[in-house]
Structures are given as structure tokens and as C-alpha cells.
Design goal:
six-stranded mixed β-sheet
């Protein structure tokens, strides 16, 4: 058996001579020239009766005299050895036995300075002559074992709960919270976030639920009672989440369903009475700008132009973005043309049927959307594309349709936003995924984990809108964005408040979304070097 500090332990037979009080035979350790420690032999009664034992650990005095007292050996002496010495003392009759053993031990020892000041466990002096171990001072008592500790440790939850929280120096304020709510034709979504790096934020809380507020809107022109009940139930959850936090600024919007319904205003009044949330109906231009603001970080620096589209439940927004030499911090400032089509996945699937879609009915949906796009005047693809093979132009899609295609393309067992957001898809990959979905029946689409039964009747209508956009603006690649109006709302509010200018990470906040010190020094050095060249 190996010991971490002492090497190999000696066998019991090698310590028999020392136990009988005779001369010790020192065996040097292999390769190091050190002596082996030998164990005393004999019964506990013989040891207690005075056969040359004085130490608390029950070791012969000759061994204590021959071997130097080292800190490593004192640390390795177990607590059980001290308890054994006390047990031997109690079995031998108490203080008198301990005194006799000490007297017999001193006869064969030198009375030098080293012997008079020998130290026992933990570097403390041994017990005085004629005194029991129990009479030692309280500080010399052995420590209780972990299982015998009677005083429980006080819980410290505050130290372990906020290990990832940013450090806030005294006098500094924590980053404020912003909230954005989007009540669309198909979904109700909420985001609560706080600004971190310039142009970025950290999500604190999120909520999303399919409510289908626009169900039956195309036929009746009004919001149905069931749809309003589903939406109000989801909004109650959002209100509870908002009331739990101190929100500095919030913006709650409603889009196409409330905008086009005859009873849209009365529905929002009911929402305010029952949930306390005041929602505003935004126009189509604002909706297009918010979609662009939410996806600004997904536009490459080398890109010269982008066509961004948001396929919603009741409408689809398209924005043409042309970026010149002077790039603005807000991508929405580069919008040159935009349009909002009065068609979405809910309205299109209700008109043409979403459960049983054939190649013929799919083409009919595509041509309907193409007719709407024909009235939209925008620059040609040749004007938008630049560079080799049009590398300066690409599409960005932000909608449930595009993210569903990406999830099916990756064959994910469960939808994962981290793998989908920002994914590049080639033109051939998008065509293959659309053909694959068109070959599935309703049950197969509902069984796919990235689609589910709630979107199984909507995904092909969204693919038809996507196909019409791709035919109008052919591109070799498309980028997937799992973000939209909520991210655009948060970005605009934080930029308007100057939140990123005030919340730049300090040096002591380097561990929280801040670049390492080496990168910061290199960046400063590069700037200074460029200035010197100029």
C-alpha cells in the first residue's frame, strides 16, 4: 500500500525489536537513504505497563529519539492515534499508569534539550508528568471527526447563487431592465433583458405561446371570442412576469390581427382592464423597421445590400437595405424600399388549406404572393448584387417558417435556438427542405420535433411565401434569424436611452461580457500605432 507522504509502509514484523525495547535496526529507504519507521509489537496491556512508551500515539520512545520531528510526519499522524493513547491510558488504571510509563521511558533516554521539549500531534507539547490527558488545557483536545461535529455550518446561499452576476462597485447602479411584448396574429411573445456590450443585451426572462389571435379573421373580419380568450390568458402570464421585476422601460405592441380587425380597439381595452397591460397598435412601416433593427447583428461587414423579410401570421414585411461606405449603427437607417404584404401563414393557409397540401395547391399559393410582389417597386437583383457571384447581396429571413426549415435541415431531435440563429443556408438546401416538407403528409409534419402539431398546418403556407420572395430576389445564400420584433424593440429602447454608453464594463467587470485585458491592450496599441503612421 502506498502512502502519499511516506512512500511504502513497513510491515509489522520489521518493528518487533523496537517493541521489546532492544536496539533498533535502521533500514534505509531505497534511493533516499532515510530510515523506515517501525511499529511497536506487543499487546496494549504490555505497552501501558511501561515497556518503553510515552508518546500519545503509542510509539516507542527510542523511535522518537532517533527520528527527527518533521512537520510532514506530524501532519500525517492520524487523529485515531491520539484517541488510541487515551484508550490505553484508561485501560491501564488512569494517571498512575501514565506516570509509571513515563518514568520507565525516561530511564533509557538521554535527558537532552531535544528530549525535554519533544512535541506531539499538531506541534503541541506532550502531557505533563503525573497529569492525565484529560487535565490538559481545552485547546489541546483532539478535534471532533466530521461525523461527530455537533454545530452545523450556517448556510450561505447568497455566495453561490450569484456567481455569474456582474460585479457592481459601490456607488454604481446595476444595468436596468427593459421589456418588449409582441402580440402577433399567431404568437404572443415577451422578452425582458438588460444591456451588456454595445449593441447587445442579456435575456433575463422570456415567454412565448401560440394563441392564434387571427384565427377566422380573414372570413369574418373580427377577432373570435375563443381567440381573444387564449390571448388574454397568455397576456396574464406576461403581466405577472412584468410585475415581479422593476422595469425601467417597456413597450408592448400588437400587429396585423389587432390592426385589421373591426373589434381590435375594443379587444385592447379589454386587455387593459383584465391584465393591466396597455398595448399599442403599430403600423406596417414601424413593424418593418423593428424587424430590421432586431437582425442588425446578422449582416456581415462586407455585405453591400440585403433583402430582409419577416413572414408573420397575418402579414409579411419586406425591406430592401443598401449599405454604403458610411455604415450607421442602426441598420434601419439604411432601408431604401419596404413593403408589407397583407398575407401571412394563418390567412394563406385558411384560404387554401394547410393540412392537405398538394404540389398544385402549393404553386397556387406561390403565384398569389407573386402577384402581390409585382406591385412592389424595388431595385433589381443586378443592382443589389456586387462582387464575385453576387457575394455582396444575400437574404435574411426572420420567421417561424425559416427557423423551421433550418431545424429540419439540421435534423434536430429538439429545436435549439443556439444552433439555428445565424445559420447560413444555400439556395439548393432551401429548395431541398421545401420539397421534403411538401412530400410529408399532415401527420408526418406534426410528428417532426421542429414543427409540432401547432405549426403543421402553417409551415407549407410559409414556404409558399418564402418561395415567392426567392423567385423575386434570387440569391445564392440565405441567413436564418431566430429573432424579430421583440429584439428590435429592445435595441431601439436601449439605444434611445444611451444604455450602452453608460453601462460600459469597468476593469473589475472583465468577467461579465467584457474582452480580456490582453485584447483591450492590443486594441489600444493598434490604434496608437495607426495614429503614429498617420
Amino acid at each position: 500500500m502506498k502512502d502519499p507522504d511516506y512512500g511504502e509502509k513497513p510491515s509489522e514484523s520489521g518493528a518487533s525489536a523496537a517493541g521489546r525495547g532492544g536496539a533498533q535496526k535502521h533500514v534505509p529507504r531505497r534511493g533516499k537513504g532515510k530510515r523506515r519507521r517501525r511499529k511497536p509489537s506487543g499487546s496494549p496491556s504490555a505497552i501501558a505497563s511501561g515497556s518503553g512508551v510515552t508518546g500519545e500515539a503509542g510509539r516507542p520512545a527510542a523511535l522518537d529519539e532517533a527520528e527527527p520531528a518533521r512537520k510532514r510526519k506530524r501532519r500525517r499522524r492520524s487523529k485515531a492515534a491520539k484517541s488510541q493513547g487515551q484508550a490505553v491510558l484508561a485501560a491501564s488504571g488512569g494517571p498512575s499508569a501514565h506516570s509509571d510509563a513515563a518514568t520507565a521511558d525516561r530511564k533509557g533516554q538521554k535527558c537532552g534539550k531535544k528530549a525535554r521539549h519533544r512535541r506531539g500531534l499538531q506541534g503541541r507539547p506532550l502531557a505533563s508528568r503525573g497529569k492525565p490527558l484529560a487535565a490538559e488545557r481545552a485547546g489541546d483536545q483532539p478535534r471532533p471527526r466530521p461525523a461527530e461535529a455537533a454545530v452545523p455550518q450556517a448556510p450561505q446561499p447568497a455566495r453561490s447563487e450569484n456567481l455569474r452576476a456582474p460585479y457592481v462597485a459601490p456607488g454604481d447602479l446595476a444595468a436596468p431592465l427593459y421589456a418588449a411584448l409582441d402580440l402577433g396574429t399567431n404568437n404572443c411573445r415577451l422578452l425582458v433583458a438588460q444591456p451588456t456590450r454595445p449593441g447587445q443585451f442579456r435575456v433575463v426572462d422570456a415567454f412565448s405561446r401560440i394563441v392564434r389571435l387571427g384565427e377566422g379573421l380573414g372570413a369574418s373580419g373580427r377577432l373570435s371570442d375563443d381567440a381573444m380568450e387564449r390571448s388574454i390568458e397568455a397576456l396574464r402570464i406576461c403581466a405577472a412576469k412584468l410585475n415581479l421585476r422593476s422595469i425601467r422601460r417597456r413597450r408592448l405592441i400588437a400587429t396585423e390581427a389587432a390592426r385589421s380587425a373591426a373589434n381590435g380597439e375594443s379587444f385592447l381595452n379589454r386587455v387593459a382592464e383584465e391584465t393591466g397591460l396597455d398595448l399599442e397598435i403599430i403600423n406596417r412601416e414601424t413593424e418593418a423597421r423593428l424587424a430590421v433593427s432586431g437582425c442588425s447583428s446578422l449582416v456581415d461587414r462586407e455585405t453591400k445590400s440585403v433583402v430582409l423579410f419577416d413572414i408573420g401570421g397575418g402579414s409579411s414585411e419586406i425591406a430592401v437595405i443598401r449599405i454604403g461606405e458610411n455604415r450607421s449603427s442602426r441598420l434601419a437607417n439604411h432601408i431604401t424600399h419596404w413593403t408589407s404584404l397583407p398575407v401571412g401563414v394563418v390567412t394563406l393557409s385558411e384560404r387554401h388549406g394547410g393540412e392537405h397540401v398538394t404540389p398544385q395547391s402549393f404553386e397556387t399559393m406561390v403565384r398569389e404572393v407573386e402577384g402581390m410582389l409585382a406591385h412592389f417597386e424595388s431595385p433589381s437583383v443586378d443592382m443589389l448584387a456586387s462582387g464575385n457571384s453576387g457575394s455582396g447581396f444575400h437574404l435574411i429571413g426572420t420567421s417561424g417558417t425559416v427557423t423551421t426549415l433550418a431545424g429540419v435541415h439540421l435534423d434536430l431531435p429538439r429545436y435549439d435556438r443556439r444552433r439555428v440563429d445565424g445559420l447560413w443556408l444555400s439556395d439548393a438546401e432551401v429548395s431541398a427542405m421545401q420539397a421534403r416538407l411538401l412530400s410529408w403528409d399532415f401527420a408526418a409534419r406534426a410528428a417532426n420535433p421542429c414543427i409540432g402539431p401547432d405549426r403543421a398546418d402553417l409551415v407549407l403556407a410559409g414556404c409558399a411565401i418564402l418561395e415567392a420572395i426567392r423567385r423575386r430576389w434570387p440569391s445564392t445564400r440565405m441567413r436564418v434569424a431566430d429573432r424579430g420584433l421583440r429584439e428590435g424593440l429592445l435595441t431601439d429602447m436601449m439605444a434611445d436611452d444611451g444604455a450602452w454608453r453608460r453601462s460600459r464594463p469597468r476593469r473589475h467587470q472583465r468577467g461579465f461580457n467584457a474582452p480580456p485585458a490582453s485584447e483591450e491592450r492590443n486594441r489600444v496599441h493598434d490604434k496608437a500605432h495607426e495614429g503614429a503612421k498617420a
